[in-house]
Amino acid sequence: MDELVRAIEATLFASAAPLTVDEIGEHVGEGDVPAALSELAGHYLARGIQLVERGGHWHFQTAPDLAHLLRRTREEPRRLSRAATETLAIIAYHEPVSRAEIEAIRGVQISKGTLDVLMDAGWVRPAGRREGPGRPLLYATTQEFLTHFGLGSRRDLPGIDDLKAAGLLDPLDEAVFQLQLESEDEAD
What we know:
By secondary structure, the chain is of the alpha+beta class.
């Protein structure tokens, strides 16, 4: 391996957070960073750890086929409530979205604690304020959300056909989901 590849490997290994190509370039200096990342990812392809890109950020992760070895030592996170799961899905598919819009889509009010749980998990963040009456706070997903769920970007979220194929939509959910998609198309 050449010096650039080695420098990138050391930079990513020592980094506490995933890095973009530009951030890696700031650490290692001149060179074809994308080509070096591709070479390094190929080198780690059949290893116990892999170099992956998620949402434009690069990091090392345990190879998926070996993840079960680490589950025994990892603390099990508590499960999200149904309200938190629904709220997270609404934010992911509709971001940036206000609390009132989340409540309108869900059809019920959400407690402040629901958003706090999602923000504490690092999956949701405030994303500014909407111009308009009351200037409501907007919410969006984070890079950590993409990384946790193994998504390269929000475009990788499953669509209605994927959800149907997985059996995750019952007929009522499917009708509501379809109405939401149609109302978004009309708004655009």
